[in-house]
Each structure stands twice: as C-alpha cells, then as structure tokens.
UniProtKB/TrEMBL annotation:
PANTHER family: CELL SURFACE PROTEIN, OUTER MEMBRANE PROTEIN ASSEMBLY FACTOR BAMB. Keywords: Signal. It comes from the Bacteria. Residues 1-20 form the signal peptide. Residues 22-45 are annotated as: Disordered. The keyword Signal applies. SMART domains: PQQ. Pfam families: PQQ_2 (PF13360). SUPFAM superfamilies: Quinoprotein alcohol dehydrogenase-like. This is Pyrrolo-quinoline quinone repeat domain-containing protein. Residues 77-270 form the Pyrrolo-quinoline quinone repeat domain.
Length: 463
C-alpha cells in the first residue's frame, strides 16, 4: 500500500467475479409561471451546468459530462444559511436551490452565491419533541427536485407536530404554488417517521420516500408517496407490507428509469422468519405505485432484520443493460436483473467487502460506492460479474459524484473534499470545507463543486 499526494493512501484490489390522499392547502393556484405557458410535466433533463435532482438525474448516476479536470481547486464563495444542509443543492438555469433544517429554501446565484430569494416554510421539530433521532432541529432533509414542465422546485418539510408536507415553489421567485400533506399511512405515528431520501420528479409525479428516525423507534412503516406536479389533489402511495419499520431512508431516494418504473430500497422490517414481509429489499414499483412489479431480498433476510443489517442504507443504482446495483450494511454488493429483480436470493452476482451508506455514482459500468472501508470502484464485467478495482482509505467514504476524470467525495469526519482519479483512485486534489453531515454529497455544475455543510453551502472552483 503506497502513499500518494495529499497524504491519501490507496489500496488497489482485484476480486473474482461472484457472484391514499393527504390534506392540502393552496397558497395560490398552480398557474403557469410568469412569462411561461402550461407544459406537460416530465423528468428533469441534465444540461451543461444543471443538476436538477439528486446526483443530477433520476438514474442517480452522479456523472457530469464536460466537467473540468481538477488541476487546481479554489474558494469561489460560501453562503451562510439559517440551518444545516443535509440534501444536495440542485442547480437549474444558473441558480442553486437549497433546503435547510430550519425549513427554509434558498435560491442562490450560482456564479456568486448571492441570495436571489428565500422562503421560510414552517417551524422545524426540535429533537426534544421526537421519540428518537439524530437531527436537531428536523426540517428539510431530503434533496429537493425540479420539475421542468411547471418550473417548480419541490421540497418536503417536517414541521411542528411531526407534520410532513410537500411544498411546490415557483422557481423564479419562491412563491408557494401549492402544498400536499404526505402523512398518508393510517394508524401510524408521523412523529416517528422521517423524510431523509431525495425527491424525484417523473411522468407528472413527484416521489417522496419515508423511513424512520435514527434508533428505529415508534410505530412507523416505510412508504413512498407520489403527488401530482400540476397541483392535483391525489397523493398515491406504496406501503411496505411489514408490521413495523421497513424504512425507505437511503439519501439517494427513488431511482426512476425511462419506462417510468420506480426502484426503491427498503430497510429492516419486523419479521424475522416465516413468511417474507417485503422488507430488507429492492423493489420495482409501477409509476402510479399501485403494483410491486418485482423484488429482491437476500436469502438471510430474517437474520439481517434481527440484526439491523439490511439493504436500506443505499438506494438502487440502475446500470446499462437493465441491471441494478445495490449494497447495504452487511458488506455485500448485489448485481440484479432490473426487469425481474429475482425474489429472495435471486441476484445475478455478488461481491463482499463494502458496508455502504449513502448514494452511489457511476460512469458507464464503473460504479463508485460509499463504503465504510473506504470509497471503492467496482466494475460490472461481462454483463453479470463484479470486480473490485481500487479502494480509497477508510476516512474517504462520502457519497461520490463523477466528473472531469475524477471521483468527488468527502472525508465527512474531517470536512475535506477530495478529487480521486477515476482510473486508479490516486489523489488529484483536496480542499478543506468544514463540518458536513454524514451523507453529504457534492453537486457538480459549470466549473463549481457545491458542498452542503452544517452552516450552508460552500462552492469550490475547479480550474
């Protein structure tokens, strides 16, 4: 194990192929934005300099084509906001949109960091008012998503009383277009639910996943809700059929493929043996959430449930050729058939050695995973194999994105941004950022890297 620039060590490895509706209020009508006309809602489309959803697109690939190579990094700007930022900043038309744990949304000029507008959406919930958890206060946690058809920024808030609300904001001026209640599962305790996963917009719907608080306390169950982007009152949902838990909490949120099908990861559930309860899984759902089309769960799902060692800690990552990758808390990486996820024990291949938390990224069939052992590159080979190519040191394990021949990731403990070579993992550059959350993931837009911090957003210039 040799030493490379910036004091980062690198391990190069090889491995053999292995295998209901909610309440709503309306601040104003869902009319077209000023200067625009009504348009059909569609999925966000990546253009140069844009990043309209978590990891840039609904496949959650986190790849920015045309991003500059990191020959040098500099400080561009820092925006001090009114609370911690856990989600990724999204970027559309030269403006970055950010939600804070103080339930405030900011629009920032991408070039300067200057505030364009801000909108306070409620009072967040203090930790003392929750049965468990690790965010204080708890406001906007999941990454927002932008709808190009209605020019709307969608965020999910948690406010006093444990209420969860979808808020649609006019991207130009922050005006509230409409709200929808998201506490749609009857008989559960909303104060025990948490909206941590990223939102996704596709096919005229905005998808919002729910899990539990850190500690898995209280009477909650995992579900994903879907509201209409045009302001319609319907809120559909898919609820994990377990007695309790089964949270959809991975920071990357749902992945949506061109067919409209929705992939989600589910955490540990209540059943430990006997009939399978739908937990510890990857699910493929219909676009309207009315049907579970297929699922995957490890053979030992019962014992994983009993030990809180499940797949829910990362979101599914669609790959070329109708494949899906997932990794979780046990250290196993699974390659799945995206058309038929395989049921219990039905993976196409597996590889051990990555306890993963956060969001993955990819460039083609090379996948970069946020492993507790250190960020790893794993290649999908021959259509059905997995090969580990390199591993970064254990302190460099943040949720990565890819651009300019580099993997951008964080040492979340030290608050340092790292650019690692895609090919061999060697350090290309590094920059101290300051305190960040455990699941913080950078945004690549133009020639800037935007990093969400516990105080706001820091922009690093790449040249």
């Amino acid at each position: 194990m040799g030493r490379v620039a910036y004091g980062i060590a690198l391990v190069v490895l090889t491995a053999a192929t292995a295998c209901g509706s909610g309440g709503e209020s309306r601040a104003d009508s869902a009319s077209p934005p000023p200067g625009g006309s009504a348009a059909t809602s569609s999925a966000p489309v990546r253009t140069a300099g844009s990043w309209p959803t978590y990891h840039g697109a609904n496949d959650r690939a986190g790849f920015a084509a045309g991003f500059p190579a990191p020959s040098a990094l500099g400080d561009a700007w820092t925006a001090r906001l009114d609370g911690a930022v856990y989600g990724q900043p999204i970027v559309v038309n030269g403006t970055a949109y950010v939600g804070t744990e103080n339930d405030t949304v900011y629009a920032l000029d991408l070039a300067t960091g200057r505030q364009v507008w801000q909108r306070r959406l409620g009072t967040p919930v203090p930790r003392s008012a929750l049965p468990c958890g690790n965010i204080d206060p708890l406001g906007i946690t999941g990454t927002p998503a932008y709808d190009p058809g209605t020019r709307t920024v969608f965020v999910a808030t948690e406010t006093t009383g444990g209420r969860h609300t979808l808020v649609a904001l006019n991207a130009a001026d922050g005006r509230v277009r409409f709200t929808r209640g998201l506490d749609v599962v009857a008989g559960r305790d909303p104060t025990a639910e948490q909206q941590r996963g990223a939102l996704a917009v596709a096919g005229g719907r905005v998808y919002v996943p729910f899990g539990g608080l850190a500690g898995d306390c209280g009477n909650y169950v995992g579900y994903v809700a879907a509201a209409r982007t045009d302001g319609g009152k319907e809120v559909a949902s898919y609820v994990v059929p377990t007695r309790r838990m089964g949270g959809m909490w991975a920071p990357s949120g749902p992945a949506v493929v061109p067919s409209g099908d929705v992939y989600v990861a589910v955490g540990n559930g209540a059943s430990l043996s006997g009939a399978y309860d739908g937990s510890d899984s990857v699910l493929r759902l219909s676009a309207d959430l009315s049907r579970r089309l297929s699922y995957f769960a490890p053979k030992n799902w019962g014992s994983e449930n009993s030990e809180d060692q499940d797949l829910g800690s990362t979101g599914p990552l669609p790959l070329p050729g109708d494949r899906v990758l997932i990794a979780g808390k046990t250290g196993d990486i699974y390659l799945l058939d995206g058309r038929d996820l395989g049921g219990v024990g039905g993976q196409r291949a597996s590889l051990h050695g990555c306890v993963a938390f956060g969001g993955m990224a990819r460039n083609g069939s090379s996948v970069y995973l946020p492993c507790e052992e250190g960020l790893q590159r794993v290649d999908v080979t021959g259509g059905s194999g997995l090969r580990r190519v390199w591993r970064a040191p254990g302190n460099v394990k943040g949720s990565p994105v890819v651009g300019g021949g580099a993997v951008w990731t964080l040492d979340t403990g030290a608050g340092v941004l790292h650019a690692l070579s895609e090919s061999d993992g060697r350090s290309l550059a590094a920059r101290r950022i300051g305190e960040v959350s455990r699941f913080a993931s950078p945004t690549l837009a133009g020639s800037l890297v935007l990093v969400p911090t516990m105080r706001g957003v820091t922009a690093i210039s790449v040249r």
